[in-house]
Design a protein that fits this description.
Layout: E1 2-9, H1 13-24, E2 29-32, H2 45-48, E3 53-54, H3 59-64, H4 74-79, H5 82-91, E4 96-99, E5 103-106, H6 111-125, E6 128-130, E7 135-141, E8 144-150, E9 154-162, H7 177-184, E10 190-195, E11 199-201, E12 213-223, E13 226-237, E14 241-243, H8 245-257, E15 263-267, H9 274-287, H10 306-313, H11 326-337, E16 339-346, E17 354-358, E18 364-365, E19 370-371, E20 377-379, H12 393-409
Parallel strand pairs: 1-2, 1-9, 2-6, 9-20
Antiparallel strand pairs: 3-5, 4-5, 7-8, 8-9, 10-17, 11-14, 11-16, 12-13, 12-15, 13-14, 15-16, 18-19
Helix pairs in contact: 1-6, 1-12, 9-11, 10-11
Amino acid sequence: MMKYGVAVIGAGPAGIIAAGRAAQCGARVALIEKNAQLGRKLLLTGKGRCNITQAEYDMSRFVAAFGKNGKFLYYALNRFGVEDTVKFFQQRGLAIKLERGNRLFPASGLAMDVLHILTEFLSETGVRILKNNTVKRLVKNERQIKSIKLSSTELTADKYIVCTGGLSYPTTGSAGDGFLWAESLGHKLIQHQPALVPLIIKEKWVKELQGLSLKNVNISVYQNNKKQTERFGEALFTHQGMSGPIILDMSKTIGKLLKQPVELRIDFKPALEYKQLDDRIRRDIQENRCKMFKNSLDRLLPQKLIPIIIRLSGIEPDKKTGNLTKKERKRLLQLLKQFTLHIKKLDSFEKAVITAGGIPLKEINPQTMRSRIIDNLYFAGEIIDLDGPTGGYNLQLCWSTGYLAGESAAYCK
């Protein structure tokens, strides 16, 4: 039977940092990964570009982005925060660039460059990597894990760190194994659901807008005619609904509302108040009074959206623009300021960026990431019940909690 000081399960960002940090602290470390390749999910982040972190150096604002439970992260961020992450990669030769939304990416635009540095980190710290090894069971004795049953052998360690992620991107091997193990060990799970996930819309015509990218729009979520939340920024129409940064950021809130009907209302011209936009439409009508209505909207809307707006407005496409009635003009104005879509459901875990839910925060010590149920067990990364918005927040959660779990398991500060 193989014996280690620390055994880390899951070679994603949290697991790699945890294993490397524990080894830096002098522990004999095994990193167990069921895939043939490390960091498969990491390679998909940021559309293959890897949004390393969010350049928000004010810790209170960073924590606030995670909502009321974000304060759980204070200690982990103090141990390994945004500046530490940037320094970690830059000192190992990775050039980093800042993009809109304060997102930090490798200058090369390649997630593989990030993974290369992480694998070198494991090599330099002497971590033993056990690839193609499926964990069958964690063997427990009272409040201790005694060993790990692998597909072909058994391994024992003084401390165990579970960094198996959630259920998003199941093609990378994310099957929720860690949730099952935690439950078998006595943890009570928070129900998991897709987070940062596209929406499926009821309107069938939405597929005609597939690929249409919206910039500088405001999208509000309504239920029972009451606004629940809103975002300003970028969104994207898909063949089934909507995606893009502001949609993904609101998806968790929407998921909680979906027991009752939920609407999206898009303001295509948020910089203009109703009267200002009405004045703009009047001017366009005057300038295009001899054109057919269907040929008069080019300066107001993206080309792909025009046929849908015309259809929903009920205005005859071949009608001369100068003959529009006040009622028709107001109908057009309403569509531009409150373009309404009805949400059918969230898309699946296959499309989700991360998983919400998991190990309850009250069952983890935030100063060590140690389980309050099992004395020699630690958690890090997506498996815990904490998730943030798009833009590098969730990868930073992995770096910070992984680092803290690694040094805590190895008794190092």
